[in-house]
Amino acid sequence: MPRVHRNSTTDRTLAEALQKAYTARAKLFFDRVRQYALAKQVRRIGQLDAGRLQWDLATLNISPSVFQKIKASDAKLHLIFCHPDILDIDRTFLSYYRNLAALSQKGLAQLLVGRQIRDDERTLVISQLLN
After folding, report:
1. In-domain check, residue 95
2. How many domains does the chain have?
3. Which has the closest alpha carbon to 130: 73, 71, 70, 87?
4. Of the candidates 27, 47, 61, 92, which lies 20 to 30 Å from 102 by C-alpha distance?
5. What's the whole-model pTM score?
6. Structural domain span for residue 95
């Protein structure tokens, strides 16, 4: 079988293209979510006082560059990124974040299959997957 030679420039270009595509997809989906069924949850989550949330990017599986772009846009970070403390406030917010990530309930369940997760770390693991 022939070997595929890749270099760091190709990898970086592909990663940047994928990041742009998925960011555009997430933005489009977020706009649609706000317009339709989840508008009430967007309002509820948006009204939360999220100023005390600790954003450990590595732990939460959030790209630092994407985080900085969202932060620079003055968007509320907890409307874009799933945080376990938000899920702990109200588990029904999970559907908002799942939809934002374009991940069905079944898809999330499949990603969680086979993982040994303690109850006290469940929201963290879910947040990592959704981010």
Report:
1. yes
2. 1
3. 87
4. 47
5. 0.70
6. 8-130
